[in-house]
Each structure stands twice: as C-alpha cells, then as structure tokens.
Amino acid sequence: MSSMNENKTKSVTLGVKDFFTNHQNLTSAIYQNFTSAVYQNLTTATYQNLTSATYQNLTSAVYQNLTSAVYQKLTSAVYQNRTSATYQNLTSATYQNLTSAVYQNLTSAVYQNITSAIYQNLTSPTYQNLTPTSTPHVYENIVPVTLLFVFGVVGNAIALSVLICSAKTHKWRPFYRLVCGLAISDGGGILASYPFAEYRYLSNFEYDFPEALCNYLGFVFMFTLMSSAMVVCCMSVDRFVAIFYPFVYNTPTKERRAMMMLGAVWVLAGILSSLHLYGLGASRNYYPGSWCFLDFIDLSSTSKVIYSYIYAFAGAIVVTLTVIINLMVIVFFVKNKFSQSAAKSNRNDLPVVLFLLMIVTLFTSCWAPLMVNIFQHAAFAVTGQGKTELLFLRMAVTNSVIDPWIYILFRKEVMIMLVNFGNRFLGRNTSSPLQKSTASTGKDVSETKRSVSVI
Asked: What is the residue-wise DSSP string for 15-37?
C-alpha cells in the first residue's frame, strides 16, 4: 500500500515537473515570439507616437533649459569677443560720425554760451569806457587822419584870418559873426581831438586811450559835430529872416542877437554832448581805437538807448530844418529870377543859388549818414561796429573841414579877388565880368549889395 502510494507520489511529482518544464519552455518560446512581435509592432507604433509626444515635450523642456544655459554661456562668450571687436570697429565709426555731429551741435551750443558770457563780461561798465585791447590785426592808413587834421586846422585858421582882414568890408554883420563861430567850433574841435588820434596811429595802435581820455574825446567829437550843425542851421535861419522879413531882421540889435544865438548854440551843444558824464549813457572807443563817441553800439541799458535817441533826434531836426530853410531860399531866388525882365543880368542871382545848393548838398551828404547810423543802432536794425562807423565819422568831420572854404573862400568878394589875381598873373584886363555886372546900373548895384548882405 505504501509502495503504491509512493509510486503515485512519484507520478504526480514527475507530472508536476514535466508541467513546469513545459511551462518554462513555453514561456521562453512565447516570450521570444511575443517579444519579437511586440517589439516590432510596439517599436513602430510607439516610435511614431512617442516621437511626436516626446519631441513636443522634449523640445519645450530642452528649449527652455538649453536656452537659459546657452544664453548665459553664449552671452558671456559673445560679449567678451564682441566687445573687443565691436569696440574697435564701433569706436572708429562712431568717432567719425559722433565727432561731426557733436562738433556741429557743440559748436552751436558753445558759441551761444560763450557769446552770451563774453557779451556780459565785455559789456560791464568798466569795459565800456575803455579802449579795446590793441591788436596787430588793425591796419589803417594814417593819411586820411593827417589830411583831415591839417586841412581842418589850416582851413579854419585861414577862414578866421580872412574874416579879420575883411572886417572893414563886412563890418561883422550877423552872418559873419556866425561864420566866425563856425570856424572856431570846427577848427577848435579838430585841434583838440585829432592829435590823440594821430598818436594812436603813430604808435602802431599800441597806445590805448584811458577811460578819462575817452570820455573827453567823446565830448569833443560830439560837441564839434553838433555845434557845427547848429551854427550852419543858425546861418540858414539868418539868411531866411533877412530875405523874407527884412524889416524884422534889420534892427539895431541884430549883431547882439547873432551873438546870443551863437552862445545858445554852444551851451545847448555842450549839454547834449556831456550827458554821458552825468550818468545818462556812456562813451565808447570805436574802430580802430582812435576816436570816441556816444555808445550807440552796446545798448544793454535803457540810458544808452535814450541818449542815442536824444542825440540822433537833435541831429535829425537840425539837418531837416537846415535843408528846408535853404530850399525855401533857393526857391525864392529862382522865382525872383523868372519874374524879372529879360534885360536884367542874372549873374547876381546865379552865385547865390549855386552857393545854397552847395550848402544843402554838402551838409546833408556829410552829416546825415552818421545820424541815420545812430538811429539804426538805437532801433536794433544793425549791430556791431567797424569801418562803417569810422567812414561816417570822417564824413561828418569832412563837413567841418570844408565849411570855411564854402562859406568864406567861395564868396563873391573872394572870387572877384581870385579872378583879379589870375588876370594880373596872366596879363589880362583886371576888370572881371562880376565887376562889370555890378557896375552896369545903380539898381544892379543895390541888388548886389542886398545879395551880399544876405549871404
């Protein structure tokens, strides 16, 4: 029984063993077949699915991580390499472009700032009355200054000599008293100012006028020009009253009236020319540093503008009044000539008309430009100063130089004397046409005397 059970147990054991052996074989075969089949199928399907899913997920993850890592490394590497290369290239290109742009912008900005700063410093009260610093770039000829000085002093001295020598003839009538005052104003002003200008030229523009000397020269120049213009205006008024109002003119006090007019002219001209000494406006040294005048260039203060307008308005009124009065006198002589008979000689009237035309033309052309220039500066129409102002001053002084010649040497008596001298020198008849015309009739003689007394 026991053997039977034992055999039965062995049979079961062998069966189980065979089962497990077969199971292992089957498992191995199935695993191999399944692995191969699954791997092939799974690889294809999984690869396709996994590639798409993984690529998307991996790309996003890798991109984020890689971008951060690469960016940091790349930035550091590129920055180091690029900085060196870029700096060299950029420096050269930028320097050229930046230099041009900055220079243009900087030049404009710096110029404005420097100009403003310099203008504020140079327009200080200390600088206003001082001569500009001498500079070797000033090249002006001394000949014009010398000619104005010589002819101005000598011409007016000759005029005074002629007046004194011919005192018995003109008997110091009002007109000749005014002529004497004109010669004193012109000759004295030139004599009192031009030696300093000559010294400035002779020093090769190294001598600078001190402030006190510049104030003095400013007064002298302004007084000479203004008093000369006023005396000319008074002479025109004297002729006008003598022609149009002879009864009012011919009074016993006419000589004293002329002296009072002359004194009033000098006082008024002195007041107008000295206002800068009392704080209204200032004097200024003008190019090329050889003359001083009222400061109508730097009008930074209201007082300078007011002073410029006062002087310019006074000069404009004098010029306008002189021109109007002389034109009225000329029109009178022209109408008087055409109203006379044809038989009467016109030689007595022609010199008077020409004489007055010369006065109006010379005085206006020489003196008016300076007044106009002062008006332009006061109205800020023009700026700066240079050779233009120098030219206008010389023109105004030229009027003072020529005044004695046109008022004395071109008069009828002097012309007759010069004609007689020329005739004697050439051996001709000493009887001049002017003398013949004045001796033709008593009426002509009286008319001539009237013309001479008027002129």
From this structure: HHHHHHHHHHHHHHHHHHHHHHH
Kindly report, residue by residue over 174-190, the tens digit of the pLDDT: 888 888 898 899 889 99
Which uninterrupted H or E stretch holds 152?
helix 143-165
Residue 247 to residue 370: CA distance in whole angstroms: 38
Helix 211-244, helix 349-378: angle, nearest 10: 140
Burial (CB count <10 Å: 0-12, 13-18, 19+), residue 123 = middle
7 or 335: which carries more pLDDT confidence?
335
**Where do we find the tokens 């243009």?**
104
Q: Record the tokens describing residue 425, joined without a space.
A: 């020198």
- By CB atoms closer than 10 A (0-12, 13-18, 19+), residue 145 is buried
Which domains, ranges and CATH numbers included, belong to the chain? 1-122 (no CATH), 138-410 (1.20.1070.10)
- Report the alpha-carbon distance of residue 282 to residue 294 in Å, rounded: 6
Question: Is the CB of residue 287 less than 8 Å from the CB of residue 117?
Answer: no
CA-angle at 212, arms to 210 and 213, nearest 5° = 65
Q: What is the largest CA-CA distance in the chain?
A: 211
- pTM confidence score: 0.61
Which range (134-143, 201-210, 247-256) has the least confidence? 134-143
Distance CA 225, CA 273 (A): 10
CB-based contact 308:294 (threshold 8 Å)? yes
Contacts of 45 (CB under 8 A, 6+ apart): none
